Amino acid sequence: MANMAQAIRMALHYGEKHLGVTDIFGEDVGMPLGGVFTQTQGLEKSWNTPLDERGIIGMAMGLAMAGERPVAEIQFADYVYNTIDLLKLAGNTCWATNGDWNLPMVVMTPVGAGIRGSIYHSHSFDAMMTHIPGWKIVLPSNPLDAYGLLVSAMQEQNPVMYLPPKALMRIRGEELIPGEPEDQRELSKMIDAPLGDRSKWKAKWPALEGYSVPIGKGKIVREGKQVTVVSYGRTLLLCADAAKELAAEGIDAEVIDLRSLWPYDWEMIQASVKKTGRVLFVNEDTEVTNFGEHLIRRTVDELFYELLAPPRLIAGKFVPGIGLSDALERASVPQPEDVKSAIRSLALEQP
Amino acid sequence: MSRPRLVGAEKSAPSLAPDLLVRMHDLMVKARVLEERLIQMYKQGDGYFWIGGPGEEAFNVPLGLLIKKGQGPAFDYLHFHYRQSATFLAMGEEPIGALRQMKNTATDPYSGGRNFAGHFSKRAWNLAPVTSPIEVQYAMAPGTAMAQKRHGGDGISIVTGGDAGTAEGDFASCLVWSSRPGNELPVLMIVTHNKWGISTASDTQQGPKNIADRATAFGIRNKTIEGNDPVVAYQELQEAMDYVRKERKPFLLEARVSRLFGHSSASGANMVEGELDCISAFEEKLEASGILTRSQMDEVRERYTAEMSAMAKQVREEPQPKPEDIWNHIFFEGK
Ligand SMILES: Cc1ncc(C[n+]2csc(CCOP(=O)(O)OP(=O)(O)O)c2C)c(N)n1
């Protein structure tokens, strides 16, 4: 099974071969490194840029304007912050020109904590990004979705922000990417660049298929009747694990992987909350003005009379950074125990 | 009667044909009258904000005439700032669009009543949307230029901004990205230097004697020119463009220009003293060389004044966008 970095690489390869992707670029994206998470190794259209995030986003916008199909990477989401006005501009270009211009471009940038990344390699970007209209925003939690969402992103006529969680770059899924060989060692031999001299190496790509995950569609990863848990990215895994463990205690949680933050699958959330009457939103971004707060507001607005308990949010603490020490990181972002006890108490709460 | 001399003939550089000079004059006056009309509309409450380019016509008209106009990478991509109505008119644009944008009508061809005056956009001519944030256009120009270099042909990316804005990082980005060794890009970087930010004098903020000097460090060819003389501007632009078109390498052109009505309506939009008016200066030369008479030039101005007055009246009757229009075009609906 491919890990997420390999899945991204294979999607990009599919994109440059079949979807007209012309450029895959960013800091250290080209060879010899092929991305700090190895996610762009061996690609034909990849190249290294100057260390200039604003230049990277500007380049993507210019290429998209001129009819190319760029995929730009910002090495860590922590460094995409100094491009916010350009992101705002990319998002408003279609609207501002009354539909005359559109920008078919993908920006990918790895998000979140969990790699002991300290203060400047642990930021999330979901609240910030969902505050910028005109973009589609996706955030995979497993390699197959990472592949399928990226394939969709590369077919879009609008800017798409693709946010793989850093901590999940090495996780393996349970499903094969269509076309990927079953043996992971075989896959590795084909598409992982060797250590040492890479100047003559070329990837041998498997015959991949254009499998896509539609933008805006969530996925029920576990069905349940008692409480709805909505998450995405790294914390989705915590939620799925918690639900599994709580089943042994007789608590029956439904877990939704949102996958797309904009547009997002309100229908799926709505149907689930109508069934369970209880909902917990979980993500690792700082909790003040958090995307989960928007979801709670909408839940209260539209589903108030369906609710058996107040909707809850578990998110990162509102502190300026994530400290390097294990104790500090753990205290800052949701941990399995936090998720479990929140689901438990919500499931048992009586009106 | 003495034989008409060509304007610019006193210099050693080859001069321009009389019919081109007449055309440039016509367009310069047209652009000036348009801006005057826009200011008047603003002052009469037919708009909320004015910003534009009176004072820059001598540079902007030749620029518009030299652009390779069309859609796609075979043609020039234009990353303008908000003072370039004269360039747009010289490209053949109808002035009524600017009035519609000032009046923020539903018929505003650039933004449907959403954006400020002077914030043009026209995909059919590769004119990227003019934006309010200063200098961001410099970050995008290398992108279109890269597509053009790849495409082949002689299309170039032209990016324009003011002097104060060159302090932004995006200006440096453009210098860096357009001159990567082995990957030089066909970008014509233009700085129209009017000596001011809004109220901040450039010589209190900028170290280099000429902004163009900054390009030297990158091995980018550059020049500082007198942008208030349309003949000089035409010739220098032509030379710079020829270089970028042929060599597929960047060029930084700094043009010294006037700012005749201050920064924008935010600073009153009144005529300021002590700035050279490029149109008066040009008209003196045209008259002295016998190319146009005073009454011919007056006639041009009167004709455009009447035309644009009628347009303003027409635009006043046109519909405003509907509230529900806010939901249109958040995402692109086409293929
Ligand atoms: C990023 C940004 N900062 C500040 C402003 C406010 N602002 C508008 S025009 C201007 C001065 C620009 O001066 P210059 O670049 O010389 O261009 P000019 O208007 O003189 O042609 C400023 C500060 C802005 N529009 N964008």
Automatic annotation (TrEMBL), chain A:
An MF annotation (GO) of this entry: oxidoreductase activity
Q: Does the keyword Ion transport apply?
A: no
Q: Which InterPro entries match?
A: THDP-binding, Transketo_C/PFOR_II, Transketolase-like_Pyr-bd, Transketolase_C
Task: Write the record's keywords in alphabetical order, separated by commas.
Answer: Oxidoreductase, Thiamine pyrophosphate
Identify which cofactors the protein needs according to its UniProt entry.
Answer: thiamine diphosphate
Q: Where is the Transketolase-like pyrimidine-binding domain?
A: 2-171
Instruction: Write down the superkingdom of origin.
Output: Bacteria
> Which Pfam families does the record associate with it?
Transket_pyr, Transketolase_C
- PANTHER family in the record: PYRUVATE DEHYDROGENASE E1 COMPONENT BETA SUBUNIT (PTHR43257), PYRUVATE DEHYDROGENASE E1 COMPONENT SUBUNIT BETA (PTHR43257:SF2)
- Name listed for the protein in its UniProt record: Branched-chain alpha-keto acid dehydrogenase, E1 component, beta subunit
From TrEMBL, chain B:
The EC number on file is 1.2.4.4
Q: Describe the location of the Dehydrogenase E1 component domain by residue ranges.
A: 26-324
Cofactor or coenzyme needed: thiamine diphosphate
InterPro entries noted in UniProt: Alpha-ketoacid_DH_E1_comp, DH_E1, THDP-binding
Organism's domain of life? Bacteria
Q: Name one Pfam family in it.
A: E1_dh
Q: Which GO terms describe its biological process?
A: branched-chain amino acid catabolic process
Instruction: Write down the chemical reaction(s) this protein catalyses.
Output: N(6)-[(R)-lipoyl]-L-lysyl-[protein] + 3-methyl-2-oxobutanoate + H(+) = N(6)-[(R)-S(8)-2-methylpropanoyldihydrolipoyl]-L-lysyl-[protein] + CO2
Broadest EC class assigned to this enzyme: oxidoreductase
Question: Where exactly are the transmembrane stretches of this chain?
Answer: none
**Could you say which protein family the record assigns here?**
Belongs to the BCKDHA family.
Annotated PANTHER family: 2-OXOISOVALERATE DEHYDROGENASE SUBUNIT ALPHA, MITOCHONDRIAL
Q: What is this protein called?
A: 2-oxoisovalerate dehydrogenase subunit alpha
